[in-house]
Specification:
The complex is a heterodimer of chains A (108) and B (139). Chain A contains four helices and five strands, in the order βαβαβαββα. Chain A is an alpha/beta fold. The chains are: A alpha/beta (108), B mainly alpha (139).
Chain lengths: 108, 139
């Protein structure tokens, strides 16, 4: 089973913006129920895509700078980055199939 | 795991009681994954301890105190729940775990994610339904 990797404000540039592969970023919080609900799906995606996609999570209570910079409001909020740029954004408990379809469009 | 302190027993009891009453009032159900409900109630209780009000824990606020001074929009039960019966935190849902989306305006993220989810108890809840035009004009 793949695991999402926790990323902090100070690590964001290196782990996300400078990543050589697309990155799915989950902005979440400890006491957000839907964030708990989607977490297993994100672990599954990390396993399914392997080396083709990096899946990371940012705790917004502890990393407010990135949450503010990217205009996060409702969580969970999932952003896709490619070559340092945000290329997609989804909000809520997005079904795995819908998430995969979105991700696939950015893997070519 | 976050290093946030656990909420007080007093606030947990207060929020558990409130949630039970509001579930009954609106004819909604707890999420079938109990971890979802427990997390949200802890988040609400934590905000009661921290801020004095049960601010929704499923949003990011650059400044929580400023948010409360701005509006009561995201104090549970939030405006979206009172107007559209939609709880994006999944605290007040149908018994299949889906949030009710049928009253949301077109283009709302809730409808985009979950599609049209019908309300099994339309006679209950939506106590601020008359404010939908005003709410939509301001968002």
């Amino acid at each position: 089973m793949g695991q999402t990797q926790a990323v902090t404000d100070s690590e964001f540039e290196a782990e996300v913006l400078n990543s050589d592969k697309p990155v799915l970023v989950d902005f979440w919080a400890e006491w957000c129920g839907p964030c708990k609900a989607i977490a297993p799906t994100l672990d599954e995606l990390a396993a399914d895509y392997g080396d083709r996609l990096k899946v990371v999570k940012v705790d917004i209570d502890e990393n407010q700078e990135m949450a503010q910079q990217f205009g996060i409001r409702s969580i969970p909020q999932l952003l896709v980055f490619k070559d340092g740029n945000e290329v997609d954004r989804m909000v809520g408990v997005v079904p795995k199939k819908q998430l995969s379809e979105k991700i696939d469009t950015h893997l070519s | 795991m976050s290093d946030q302190q656990l909420p007080s027993e007093k606030s947990m009891a207060k929020m558990n009681k409130y949630v039970e009453k509001y579930l009954e009032k609106t004819g909604t159900s707890r999420h079938p994954n109990e971890e979802v409900t427990e997390s949200v109630i802890k988040g609400l209780a934590h905000h009661v301890d921290e801020l004095g009000r049960p601010l929704c824990p499923c949003n990011f606020y650059p400044d929580k105190k400023e948010e409360l001074e701005r509006s009561r929009e995201w104090v549970c039960a939030c405006d979206e729940m009172k107007i559209y019966k939609y709880c994006h935190c999944l605290l007040f849902v149908r018994d299949d775990g889906l949030p009710i989306t049928e009253y949301l305006p077109e283009g709302h993220e809730g409808k985009q994610i979950y599609g049209v989810v019908e309300d099994p108890t339309p006679e209950n809840g939506r106590e601020l339904r008359h404010k939908s035009d005003e709410y939509e004009a301001s968002h």
